[in-house]
Write a structure and sequence with these properties.
By secondary structure, the chain is an alpha/beta fold. It contains six helices and six strands. It has two domains: about 140 residues, Rossmann fold (3-Layer(aba) Sandwich); about 40 residues, no CATH class.
Length: about 210
């Protein structure tokens, strides 16, 4: 088996780094006393709210300074132990182009042994394993990788997401995560390579990741 077949794709925002916590703190600074507290992962349908979010995201150094999340790094260590080839797979916001370079800087600082892909469509990227917190991205990736495994770092927005190929990691079931990853590796040693599927049709990409 070629090592390149054992690819694990690992998300950044909400998985390895605390995008939501940082955004919540910055939005709170801009909130009027008459406005209710904002919930993370809202659709940001109000133009004024979208403008605030983009103002924050365009700040120089904001992405590069995001804090690490333990759940994502727990899974990362298991992937390393099983000798998966690590690829960071993260969404590149169109309206915050500084994020593309700063996400790379963050990865070089915190995950120097991983390759980095900044994309607008995660469904196009090959891997045996995906580690991601966002249900829309998970569902799209699984559409094109029906034999893939997804590890989901627990977040409030993925509590109700269920899929037979997905395992939600809440910090207390690391043994189950380890067993699932080991099964992927053992299966890859005995099965022929996964066939390439046709490229998915263009879709409107989601806003975060």
């Amino acid at each position: 088996m070629k090592r390149s077949e054992m690819v694990a794709l690992v998300d950044m925002d909400g998985t390895l780094c605390d995008y939501e916590g940082a955004m919540a703190r910055e939005l709170e600074k801009l909130r009027s006393p008459h406005e209710p507290p904002l919930k993370m992962r809202e659709s940001h349908s109000d133009p004024w709210l979208r403008e605030r979010v983009e103002l924050i995201r365009r700040q120089p150094g904001w992405w590069a300074g995001l804090e690490r999340l333990k759940l994502g790094f727990d899974v990362l260590e298991e992937l390393r132990a099983l000798e998966f080839e690590l690829h960071i797979l993260t969404k590149g916001p169109v309206q915050a182009t500084n994020s593309w370079a700063e996400k790379l800087q963050w990865c070089q600082r915190h995950v120097p042994d991983a390759r980095v892909t900044v994309t607008m469509d995660k469904g196009l990227v090959y891997g045996k394993v995906l580690v991601d917190d966002w249900p829309e991205y998970i569902q799209r990736w699984l559409t094109w990788r029906p034999r893939g495994l997804v590890i989901i770092p627990a977040q409030p927005w993925n509590e109700d997401f269920h899929h037979p190929n997905a395992l939600r990691y809440n910090g207390k079931n690391l043994d189950a995560v380890r067993a699932s990853l080991r099964a992927v590796k053992e299966r890859a040693l005995t099965l022929p390579p996964e066939p390439e599927l046709p490229a998915p049709e263009d879709e409107e990409p989601a806003s975060e990741g």
